[in-house]
Amino acid sequence: xxxxxxxxxxxxxxxxxxxxxxxxxxxxxxxxxxxxxxxxxxxxxxxxxxxxxxxxxxxxxxxxxxxxxxxxxxxxxxxxxxxxxxxxxxxxxxxxxxxxxxxxxxxxxxxxxx
Length: 114
Prior knowledge:
Layout: E1 3-7, E2 10-13, E3 18-25, E4 33-39, E5 46-51, E6 57-59, E7 67-72, E8 77-82, E9 91-99, E10 101-104, E11 108-113
Parallel strand pairs: 2-11
Antiparallel strand pairs: 1-3, 3-8, 4-5, 4-9, 5-6, 7-8, 9-10, 9-11
């Protein structure tokens, strides 16, 4: 049974930081690319960041230079360090794994107040 469980969301003031975590089980984590996406109310789901099985990373344009994705294969976890948060970063953040099949977590709410 595949499970991706996000945590670390919450309410933060603009300019602040949050660190999201995603704990994975039921997948071959070390071979999976891991992504973060987000979805704001009334908007389409948006790509935030990816880290490949080899550790390469890429980011959506709106978060480059502010967010950092990392992974710990021993813990089967992926993280998203979010700095210099802006109100427009407010969204539900989803973890996703990709290894042939894409799986999704249930999401964690991030709210940035101005």
